[in-house]
Write a structure and sequence with these properties.
alpha+beta; three-stranded mixed β-sheet; single chain; 2 domains
């Protein structure tokens, strides 16, 4: 199957259409191919099922270790703020 060649700006602007398409896209920059986008379809159900299974496993692990999720989120936000702070 022949790939459609598009510039990187056109690719970013038309991302939704390229995702919905079944045609591979060769992304170019200054005329040189820098990568390929190959849309995949039909895997969404399997991906969602895998994420749900992982979520349930994570919930069980957190409950077993008595982890306070709100405290973990607060620690994460605090760490991000420290990382963003000017030095």
């Amino acid at each position: 199957m022949e790939a459609t060649k598009v510039g990187i700006r056109e690719f970013r602007a038309g991302m939704a259409e390229f995702i919905a398409s079944s045609t591979p896209v060769a992304v170019t920059r200054h005329g040189q191919t820098i990568g390929y986008f190959i849309p995949t379809h039909g895997q969404a159900d399997a991906d969602v099922a895998s994420l749900k299974k992982a979520s349930k496993t994570l919930d069980r692990l957190l409950a077993a270790k008595a982890v306070d999720v709100d405290a973990v989120v607060a620690d994460f936000k605090s760490a991000r703020q420290r990382a963003k702070a000017p030095k």
